[in-house]
Amino acid sequence: MFVLTAKSKDTTGTIGKGEKIMTKKHFKIIAKGISNIAREISNSSASNEEKHYGLIVLRNTMHELSVEFHKDNANFNEINFFESCKVEGYLGFIETKLANKEEN
C-alpha cells in the first residue's frame, strides 16, 4: 500500500528527511478517481434528487481536499484540479434536469 505523509516545514521551508510531498501526478490520479465517482453517480439508477445530493457531497469533498493539497504543495492548482474532477459538469447536468422537472 502506498502512503503519502504530509510535509512539515521548518523555518527555512525545507521538507524533513523521509517525508514526501504530493505532486501533480498524485493530484491527477485523485482527480481521475473523483471524476469516475461523479460519472458513476450521474449514471446510476438513483433519483435525480439522490444524484444531486451525492454530487454535492462529492463537490464538498473535492473542495476540502484542495485546501489540504494546497497546504502540502504551494504549486497545487485548484482550478486545474476542479476541472479534472469534472464534478461541476455532472452537477450542472443534474441541476438542469431537476429544474426542468419543476417547470413541468
Supply the helix-strand structural class: mainly alpha
Query: Which segments are poorly predicted (pLDDT under 50) over 5 or more consecutive residues?
Result: 1-14
Helix coverage percent of residues? 55-70%
- Which outline best applies? elongated
How much strand content do the residues show? under 5%
Q: What order do the helices and strands follow?
A: HHHH
Average pLDDT works out at 86
Amino- and carboxy-terminal Cα gap: 51 Å
Give a quick account of the main beta sheet: strands, pairing sense, barrel closure.
Answer: none
Number of strands: 0
Secondary structure tally, helices = 4
Radius of gyration based on Cα positions: 17 Å
In short:
The protein has helices at residues 24-43, 48-72, 78-85, 87-103. It has 104 residues and is mostly helical. The protein has a domain at 48-104.
Task: Describe this entry's structure for a reader.
Helices cover 67% and strands 0% of the residues. It is mainly α and 104 residues long. The protein has a domain of 57 residues. Helix 1 packs antiparallel against helix 2. The longest helix has 25 residues. It is elongated. It starts with 23 loop residues before the first helix and ends with a helix. The N terminus is likely disordered.
